[in-house]
Structures are given as structure tokens and as C-alpha cells.
Specification:
210 residues, alpha/beta, 7-stranded mixed beta sheet, 3-stranded antiparallel beta sheet, 6 helices, disordered N terminus
């Protein structure tokens, strides 16, 4: 998730293989977040790292306008092929946010933040928070230290490992979530299972947070 052309090519070349594994059904996290956003009457959302849209359609089906950010041109082309071009998807890295000056009622960021280094993670949280409307909500999912891959691969820094060539993961626990999201309106942490143990992290924007 950087501007480096070599890494961008890596993500794009591995994308086609991975998309077959993911399929087109929404993640458990997307389903829970959709229910939460519907309950809160959220009308428009931003999805950084939207991929090919498998987690976007469920929001659209419930009357929520979706805007995305995606680094892979291949993914954007697939999203247009399968879901049409009703969604605005900005091509670029989330590390280069913001891509517009809009404010969103909700932000959903799935399985992306743990791919970034510490500075990039903090910037992403702040950038997402700054694009929230007052009293808006942002929901992140992140891999947990309970995952069997934790501690495997090349050690990079505390709780961060290179799992295989080009894929660096930061593994969260409740303390590190509090550390990074505590000033961004953090109000709930839920444990959830996707292909690995994940956390669902909920934040709300208000005048007394960053």
C-alpha cells in the first residue's frame, strides 16, 4: 500500500489469484457494519481499499451511496464489470488521502490498516476521521494477535512481521487498538472471525475527539 511501482505491480499481479478465493459474497464484517450503518441511518460512506467491490454491494443494496479508493487498476476494472459504474472509485493509495473534499456519514475500512507501517496507520486513521461528518462513524477491521500467523515470518518491529515476500502485517490486540484509535472516538471493539481472527473497531466523530 505505497506509491512504489514495484509493490503496486505485486499487489495487482497477485490480485487475480486472491479474488477467486474471496469470491463475491460480503465479509462477515461488512454484514455487521451494514446492519450498524442502517441502524444509524447512514446515507453515504467511503470505503478505502474497496478492492473489486465485494464488500460494497451490500451497502448499495440498502440505499447507501458508496465511494471507494483502490490502488489496483485491475480491481477497479473488475468492480465496474460486476457492479457497474454507479460508484465513484478513486485510483490511488490510501496513504495519499484525501482524494476529495467530501464528508461522509460512515467509513468502512476492511483488512487494510494492518498492511501499513505505524506512520501510515496513524495517517489513515486521521485522514478517515477528518472526512467524517459530525457524529459520523468509522469502522475498521484488523487482524488479531490470535491469528496463527502472528510471530511467524521476518520480524520487522513490535507485532509487525513480513509474512511472505512483500506482505507485512501488524497484529493488533486491545491495547494497540486503544493506542491508535483512542483519540479518534473509539467506543467499541468486537472480536470477529473472517479467514483469520479479526477485530471490528468502531469510532464516532464528535467535537471532543481529534
Amino acid at each position: 500500500m505505497t506509491n512504489d511501482s514495484g509493490k503496486t505491480e505485486f499487489w495487482e499481479s497477485s490480485f487475480i489469484e486472491k479474488q477467486e478465493m474471496w469470491g463475491f459474497e460480503p465479509s462477515n464484517s461488512a454484514i455487521l457494519t451494514k446492519d450498524f450503518f442502517v441502524e444509524k441511518s447512514i446515507k453515504n460512506i467511503l470505503i478505502p481499499g474497496i478492492g473489486y467491490g465485494r464488500n460494497a454491494q451490500i451497502f448499495k443494496d440498502n440505499g447507501i451511496t458508496v465511494t471507494g479508493i483502490e490502488i489496483s487498476k485491475t480491481a477497479i476494472e473488475m468492480a465496474e464489470k460486476h457492479y457497474g459504474n454507479e460508484m465513484t472509485i478513486y485510483h490511488g493509495s490510501v496513504t495519499d488521502m484525501p482524494f476529495d473534499q467530501s464528508r461522509y456519514d460512515g467509513i468502512f475500512c476492511y483488512a487494510l490498516i494492518h498492511l501499513l507501517d505505524s506512520n501510515e496507520r496513524n495517517k489513515l486513521i486521521r485522514d478517515c476521521y477528518s472526512q467524517l461528518s459530525e457524529n459520523g462513524y468509522m469502522v475498521f477491521t484488523a487482524i488479531s494477535k490470535e491469528a496463527h500467523t502472528y510471530g511467524k515470518g521476518k520480524f520487522l518491529s513490535k507485532d509487525r512481521y513480513e509474512i511472505f515476500d512483500g506482505v507485512n502485517l501488524f497484529f493488533y490486540d486491545r491495547a494497540s487498538i486503544q493506542d491508535e484509535f483512542g483519540e479518534a472516538g473509539l467506543f467499541e471493539i468486537i472480536e470477529i472471525t473472517e479467514n483469520f481472527p479479526f477485530f471490528l473497531i468502531k469510532c464516532k466523530k464528535s467535537s471532543n475527539t481529534i
